[in-house]
Amino acid sequence: MTGRVALIGCGPGDPELLTIKARRLIGEADVVVYDRLVGAPILDLVPAGIARIDVGKAAGRHVRPQAEINDLLVRLAVKGRFVARLKGGDPFVFGRGGEEAEALARHGIAVEIVPGITAAAGCAAALGMPLTHRDLASSVRFVTGHRRDDGELDLDWDGLADPDTTLVFYMGLANLPEIALRLMVAGLPGSTPAAVIVAGTTPDQRVCAGPRAELPARAIRARLEPPALVVVGRVVACASLVETPTSAVEERTDEPSSIALPR
Amino acid sequence: MTGRVALIGCGPGDPELLTIKARRLIGEADVVVYDRLVGAPILDLVPAGIARIDVGKAAGRHVRPQAEINDLLVRLAVKGRFVARLKGGDPFVFGRGGEEAEALARHGIAVEIVPGITAAAGCAAALGMPLTHRDLASSVRFVTGHRRDDGELDLDWDGLADPDTTLVFYMGLANLPEIALRLMVAGLPGSTPAAVIVAGTTPDQRVCAGPRAELPARAIRARLEPPALVVVGRVVACASLVETPTSAVEERTDEPSSIALPR
Description:
homodimer, alpha/beta, seven-stranded mixed sheet
């Protein structure tokens, strides 16, 4: 009897942002396969005695090739296991869930997809920054901020440089200087508000904001490190509408452009 | 003592797609204010004895003006209540959550935003259709499919007609003929896969798929009704990778272009 696989989006980091369904399936799985972006508070929900396989790094060195992860999922399911494949964010937004689902379908293995809160939605909520707004943004666009082979970002920059659209670059920190430059060349005003959000929704959340033209230098001065989202658009000026009930005071670091917002 | 408001995204319909945090706050609220798109299975989670205010329709006639909803939230919070403001999907993706958060912040009322599974992610998971894919779509774009005053869709159609981008039009059914035509004029091939998803993730889910050029006529023949998402892009061809564990057989209606996928 063949098993099955659930590709489970685990959201942006805060374990309370798991869905009820994700929480249930994590408790039912025979084996858990997880990514680098699934944090300890979520892995702590896996029942004792259930095998957990980290595919974020192979023996602490390189990231595992995707084909190897696909094969692992197939092998586990063929043995009759119910596999919970945990992914950060949403499995179908830059999560390579499509590739894993294809590989499993080719082997006739039943797959269920459990959507998760994607990083853009989690960070937007944490910062009080709407992704769309009737007066500010009629569209929001999630864009990959890195390429498969660390090559140039091959994107439609003229189409991206639309002042009515909120742009969210996933994993965009390393390419932030290129992103800012390409958007400038394509005509997006240098004054357009922009921000880098590191580890959004977690206790380690950091935010570095500024006009599009100045953000790359500020991000370097703030010594930000991945995982990070880059958001560009008028809505960024709305950030910090939110006061959390537990802490209404923003802690600021010495670097005035780097704001550690409370959870 | 002033109260507070949580703007809570309730996801696409399936109550198991609520976040754990949304579920908790629904149980803690003093009063619940909800939209048309929040269904009965979610309202059933509100404890007995807690007031529920429907702002989706005023006395069964017109939709309430946004300013009236903002005022209601302010009045309830000023009385010291903890208000759970329930919204379909995510409050910051076409949910007008930004406007409500602004109004509350102007009155000094603490606001918390709880992100939800946006309809695009919920429908993509239900259909086994990734929103991004390394080979098919480097970007996904959420676009409003209707305008404030039912006027023309004032969008950057040339920017939208990018074959490397998945387009998701929220509330796009009424304007589907215009959307398909504008994308044609902007150069998007007529063969580009497209779909309308009605009531995604709920027992009433219906899907109508076809090439971009033929979808408007098929949607009319299938007599689809809102709420609906329109998705356009290569990834739509991946739909139905998913076999749900409970029902692996697709039920087809008489209309071959309208597929009722199992939940």
